[in-house]
Design brief:
about 65% helix, six-stranded antiparallel β-sheet
């Protein structure tokens, strides 16, 4: 029953998406206002069918309905309820089904937010988004169908992948990443609509920028949580290994970041229109490429799913996307005429353009290194290995250049700059950077790249804080406001500017944490007996013995380790091995002692009850926790930038259908573009 109902809902979603895509694209090109209400009905129908299909699958998982194929694949009577719920996205078919729900939610949210605005574009944009929905519902109904009937019905199943049950982060990391991936569908639809219309006004740029920022935030959180999960679960003493599937999530993040900077030039100087849309289209294509890399099984990765039949279908879709994107840019791009030009190399628009080129260069470098093994195997029959040294050598200089430009850009004015004024604004931040490098050298830190990173981070931080403080200072002086009032008013009057600088501070924190934890890591390993101790840095670790336990879905054996910190504080950690029924090898869980300064990371490698010994890998990672602690800063800055300004609607503002613009959109953009 569950299988039949779920599959029927998927077919309903496919029908709604197909009809809505056809009506939206054809009606939009014909400029037929009667098409839009029908497209809206299809959007609601598509969302309802995807929601219903996902609820049916969740009920099948919770009720242990092993007559449904996907439940026999990931279900188990012994699995805790929480992991039964999240097992929806623990394997290929369920993750694609969940993807359909997120897509339906995004398309509906976009349609509801802008249903009274931008009538010249909305049918085309929603038609494009529903066309993407056709592809994914086709996958769910065909090669990735999770609702196949099983006969005879087995009494139980193996449960979800043990790695997905080993840490709470797997409850939230995949949904965040999916929200980032699927969210890029909205900017793709907006960009296609702009190209089909042959115009890109400020009013239509506003939703393009906002919805890209929403997807960017989810993608950022998903990437950071994924690195935290790798750090907390896999026990190899790291958080980023340039794994192909890690790279797949990083690529659209790079191009989306470049896009959001490019929009500022578009809005302030009416330039880079075609380039900006190219970045939006490219970001979406890269998310689909990343989805293919994760779900086709072509890469051997802890993140990827097993071999499946959907790879060829994805390749056809990626080829179609590339063809459509290039064709639109080639045939309609000439209609997006730049209204301004760069007048000075010493200007903010120049720094943003260079910033964009660096982001694209990093994207190309990472993409080449990720795909080269496959290309080599296809051409020469030999799969070569492209490892961490290549990515670090090629991407780290680009990352440092981006960090430098994060400081230079805000320091420069729009249009052209007086060199003398720029020099005066440069000395204080540069001096702060030099002082930080000197302090690091005095503390015994060495290494060209990490010291350069710390110096540039100080340079960027001083400039960013100065840019945040200047309007506050002006209001306090001219309007006699208190600090808190001036700060709140400054943030309110220029939300995008204020939020963007907070996001910059979060990115600086991440870069400093990555540099510190990579360059100054300390590692040791050893085997000790009960009562013996081992030393790493100024920490002493004493092995106290074994303990064991049983949980509903696993058994475990843990080691008790007494840790004496440099300040004399004593605590106990318990790195352990977890034993799952469906895995022959145990899954380790490292123990981490976290402080703002550094993490002590202990991973259990082996133990012997007979000999009373245990083998450990131990690391000290300076500053590493700041990578995940940056998430609230990124969220705060993004929410401030996204928060809508108050609008006063005049009679003229109430004509969005005729004007093709959102009420008050231009004023808000002019205030925020900085």
């Amino acid at each position: 029953m569950n299988g039949t109902l779920g599959y029927g809902l998927v077919l309903g979603g496919l029908a709604f998406a197909s009809f809505g895509a056809l009506v939206g694209l054809v009606g939009g090109m014909r400029r037929d206002d009667a098409a839009f209400p029908w497209v809206m009905r299809c959007v609601w129908g598509f969302f309802a069918c995807m929601l219903g299909a996902n609820l049916v699958m969740e009920w099948a998982l919770l009720s242990n309905d092993f007559s449904v194929q996907y439940v026999t694949q990931v279900g188990s009577r012994a699995t805790p309820t929480l992991f039964k719920i999240v097992s929806l996205w623990s394997a290929l078919e369920g993750s694609i089904l969940f993807w359909g729900l997120i897509m339906g939610s995004f398309v509906l949210a976009f349609a509801m937010v802008h249903r009274h605005e931008h009538r010249r574009y909305m049918a085309l944009a929603l038609g494009t988004m529903l066309a993407v929905g056709v592809f994914f519902t086709f996958l769910i109904a065909g090669p990735a169908n999770p609702f196949h009937a099983v006969s005879p019905v087995p009494p139980d199943g193996p449960g979800p992948n043990p790695l997905l049950q080993n840490h709470f982060l797997m409850v939230i990391h995949p949904p965040m990443l999916y929200l980032g991936y699927v969210g890029m569908t909205v900017p793709f639809g907006i960009s296609v609509a702009a190209l089909l219309r042959g115009e890109m006004g400020d009013a239509w740029m506003a939703p393009l920028r906002r919805w890209t920022l929403v997807a960017w935030l989810f993608l950022s959180i998903g990437i950071i949580l994924g690195s935290w999960w790798a750090y907390a679960v896999l026990g190899w003493g790291g958080y980023w290994a340039w794994d192909p599937v890690e790279n797949a999530s990083f690529l659209p993040w790079l191009t989306a970041t470049a896009f959001m900077h490019s929009t500022m030039v578009h809005e302030r100087k009416k330039m880079l229109k075609l380039w900006t849309l190219s970045l939006a289209l490219g970001s979406f294509v890269l998310t689909i490429l990343g989805t293919f890399m994760t779900r086709s099984g072509i890469f051997n990765s802890v993140h990827s799913f097993t071999q499946s039949d959907i790879g060829p279908t994805f390749l056809v879709f990626i080829s179609l996307l590339l063809f459509v994107s290039i064709a639109l840019l080639a045939t309609r791009g000439h209609l997006l005429v730049a209204e301004g030009r760069i007048r000075s190399m010493l200007s903010r628009e120049t720094s943003i353009l260079v910033n964009n080129l660096v982001f694209v260069a990093i994207t190309f470098t990472v993409l080449l290194g990720t795909l080269y093994p496959l290309i080599s195997e296809a051409v020469r029959g030999v799969r070569v290995s492209v490892g961490e040294p290549y990515f670090n050598k090629m991407a780290v200089p680009g990352g440092i250049m981006v960090l430098f430009l994060m400081g230079v850009g805000p320091m420069l004015p729009w249009g052209s700059a007086d060199p003398r004024t720029v020099r005066e604004r440069f000395w204080v931040p540069a001096g702060a950077g030099v002082l930080v490098v000197g302090a690091c050298l005095a503390a015994g830190l060495r290494g060209f790249y990490p010291l350069l990173t710390f110096g540039l981070a100080a340079f960027v931080t001083v400039i960013t804080l100065r840019e945040l403080a200047l309007p506050v200072k002006v209001r306090m002086k001219e309007r006699k406001e208190g600090f808190v009032t001036a700060l709140l008013q400054s943030a309110t009057k220029a939300r995008r500017r204020f939020g963007g600088y907070i996001v910059h501070l979060g990115i600086v924190i991440i870069i400093v944490a990555v540099a510190g934890s990579s360059a100054y890591v300390t590692h040791t390993s050893g085997t000790v007996r009960v009562g013996q101790a081992m030393k790493i840095g100024e920490y002493q670790l004493k092995y106290l013995g074994l303990t064991s336990g049983k949980e509903p879905h696993r058994n475990y054996i843990a080691t008790r380790v007494e840790v004496t910190a440099p300040n004399g504080a004593v605590s106990e950690l318990a790195p352990r091995m977890n034993y799952y029924e469906r895995m022959t090898d145990p899954v380790g869980t490292p123990a981490v002692r976290e402080t703002p300064k550094e993490d002590l990371y202990i991973s259990l490698m082996a133990f012997s009850e007979e000999r009373g010994t245990a083998s450990f890998n131990v690391w000290i990672f300076p500053l590493v926790g700041w990578i995940w602690w940056s998430i609230p800063i990124l969220v705060l800055g993004t929410l401030i930038a996204l928060w809508p300004a108050r609008k006063t609607r005049s009679a003229q503002d109430k004509k969005p259908a005729a004007a093709g613009s959102s009420p008050g959109g231009g004023d808000e953009l002019n205030r925020g573009a900085a």
